[in-house]
Amino acid sequence: MLGVGAAAWKSEYEGVSGSDELAVYPAISYKGDRFSISGTEADYRVLGDGDSGLNAYVSLGMGDGGYDASDSVVFAGMDDRDASIDLGVGVEYAFDQGSLNAAIAHDVSGAYKGLVGSASFSSSQKLSDTLYLTPSAGFYYRSSDYVDYYYGVRDSEATSDRSAYEGDDTLTPFVGYELFTVLSEHWRISHSAEVRWLGDEITDSPLVDRSTVWSAALNFLYLF
């Protein structure tokens, strides 16, 4: 499927806007027997078939795109933080009540040079012949290397208003949903939203000014 999407979000970083404007992007989705693409992630089914199995995947931007020093005054005088490329494995197990998912990945781009992971439960509900709702809940894992890179302040970056900071690994719980609508034989609309509660290792950073963040997206897709 190909289409266009728009996203809004609330950033945890002090002074970084997100919800004030929309980011528009190309929406790409493909699902084959073993290979699939969804957004910035590509998966290959190593073991299993259907909705259960073991996947290898590569993902762009697990650091949520990083940041530039010019994005906010809180970053003034700091080095930019780059988005990452992560390589990992994921396990899916589907049963009558829903699906359990777990994944672990390592940065292979040399950005934060650490690990990220996740575990979640989701359950797809058919609301009508053309409308499907999939709520989900789980947590994200971020290693100390990740926290230090994206939320830490190096000694060389510390100022009188921004103390040096070195974090530890952390868990971030989340809840979310996806709403999928079939408009016609070829056209689809998907809407998703998520709320995250950031761990103390992130919220204690002098770069961060909130403990709860959210994101939402709306995609218009054409099915070939």
Number of domains: 1
How many runs of DSSP E, i.e. beta strands?
13
At CATH level 3, the topology is: Porin
Which second-level CATH architecture applies? Beta Barrel
In what order do the strands lie side by side in the largest sheet? 1-2-3-4-5-6-7-8-10-11-12-13
Helical fraction: under 10%
The helix/strand series, from N terminus to C terminus, equals EEEEEEEEEEHEEHE
**DSSP helix count?**
2
Strand content: over 45%
Globally, the shape reads: globular
Biggest beta sheet attributes: 12 strands, antiparallel, barrel
CATH hierarchy class name: Mainly Beta
Structural class: mainly beta
Low-confidence stretches: none
Radius of gyration: 19 Å
**Fourth-tier CATH superfamily name:** monomeric porin ompg
How far from one another are the termini? 6 Å
Q: Please state the average pLDDT score.
A: 94
Helices and strands in order:
Elements: E1 2-9, E2 23-31, E3 35-38, E4 41-49, E5 52-60, E6 85-95, E7 98-107, E8 115-122, E9 125-126, E10 131-142, H1 144-151, E11 170-182, E12 187-197, H2 200-203, E13 212-222
Antiparallel strand pairs: 1-2, 1-13, 2-3, 3-4, 4-5, 5-6, 6-7, 7-8, 8-10, 9-10, 10-11, 11-12, 12-13
Give an account of the 3D structure.
The protein has a 12-stranded antiparallel barrel with strand order 1-2-3-4-5-6-7-8-10-11-12-13. The protein has 224 residues and is mainly β. The longest helix has 8 residues, at 144-151. The protein contains 2 helices and 13 strands. Helix content is 5%, strand content 52%. The protein starts with a strand and ends with a strand. The model has no long low-confidence stretch (mean pLDDT 94). Keywords: Cell outer membrane, Membrane, Signal. InterPro entries: MipA (IPR010583).
